[in-house]
Amino acid sequence: MQHFQAHLHDEAGTAALGTALARALAPGLVIYLHGDLGAGKTALTRSLLHAAGHVGTVKSPTYTLSEPYAIQLGGRKVSVIHFDLYRMGSPEEFLDAGFREDFNGDNICIVEWPEKADRVLPAADINLFLTVAGNGRDVELQASTALGNSCLQRLKFAPNM
């Protein structure tokens, strides 16, 4: 399986990675974002969504738990659903909200704080880890399925040196 590691020197590096990921997206992709508060998970998602064609604000779904965005991908309308499960009290809340239905092979689901629903959350195609390192971030992407593997094979990203 594909694996990618880099050091992002600043916020611009995080934005550049989001832009590169947007070019490698495929319908049905599930990406888990791991990292402490302030690690850049929402910033990366915001850059990804803007690069994928979303016009307008991208707000953190901390209180709503999910925010859908419509983009065009290969001439096809696709929904990207950004989840932030930080405030979720139990995995059952994920099920009660009906979120499992969003993981349907057509939508792209990006999940912050996936460990909050680990027993009920569908498997990730890519696990992305962001760690604060000085003024920048260390990033690691791990594919865990064929779909995630093909996404990382398409990823064209040269970290800022």
Automatic annotation (TrEMBL):
GO terms for biological process: tRNA threonylcarbamoyladenosine modification. Its main location: cytoplasm. InterPro entries: T6A_TsaE. It is found in: Cytoplasm. It comes from Duganella violaceipulchra. This is tRNA (Adenosine(37)-N6)-threonylcarbamoyltransferase complex ATPase subunit type 1 TsaE. GO terms for cellular component: cytoplasm. GO terms for molecular function: ATP binding; metal ion binding. The gene is tsaE. Keywords: ATP-binding, Cytoplasm, Magnesium, Metal-binding, Nucleotide-binding, tRNA processing.
